[in-house]
Design brief:
Number of strands: 5
Number of domains: 2
Oligomer: single chain
Number of helices: 8
Largest sheet: 3 strands, antiparallel
Structural class: mainly alpha
Radius of gyration: 23 Å
Strand content: 5-15%
Order of helices and strands: HHHEEEHEEHHHH
Length: 251
Amino acid sequence: MSYAEYSTPHHQMRFSAEFFNTITLADVEGLFQNDVLPHVLPRDSVTKWNLDRTVPSAIAEIVVAAGEEIPCYHDLRPIFEILEKAFYDEGMSSVCLQIGKQQIVRYHFSKLRLIVNYNNHEYNLLVAKRLLDRVHDSNLLSPNLIAELKLNRFAEPLAGFKVTETPLYTLGSLLDERWVLEDVLNARAEFLYFRRALLQRRQNSHEQSGCSIQRRDHRYAGTHPQWRGRFTWFHLLDCRPLFRHLQNLYR
């Protein structure tokens, strides 16, 4: 068995790569409501560690349990630097960690990957939950639209974009005005581009037909056949009070 096969979690395990690629926003909400998320320990919580040839078989050594305290990625980085070589050269199959002064745990290599995956998505899950909370509290979307929003996958690209691959959860970063996120900036720029292009095309079409129209907002773009039946970024970004400082997009 290769190191990649041995260290890759089963695709149906919670916090596997496939898990984060398939869960919906409704699933994210359920993770918080059911209190099944682990707790990431502060940096330097792992005081000692060593590799071992024992192949873990206990459930606690293979899966991440609800409410379990897990190391942060910084503490695991030195382990990952030698893990593959130790697997092939010395037959190492697990790692034992001392957390704090007394707690000793053993992890299967695949559990280490689950822990890293959760570390990578901990913030993303949080902002997705905050986004849903804002949508609920604002009362700006109808119950049907909220239900439609929740059916979208947590990490799927925002519908309608042609250049950027901006995951849906990234919209939550707008709540904190984290404009330094490159994909958010690209998304805003692309939103402006599509808005101007669509308005200009509509204006030109009516001028050619001899009709005059008043300037309208971008909402009609969401009715394009390509996006019909899908919750697009037009639905969210049209709700101006949801996110602060978006008013410049409508000038």
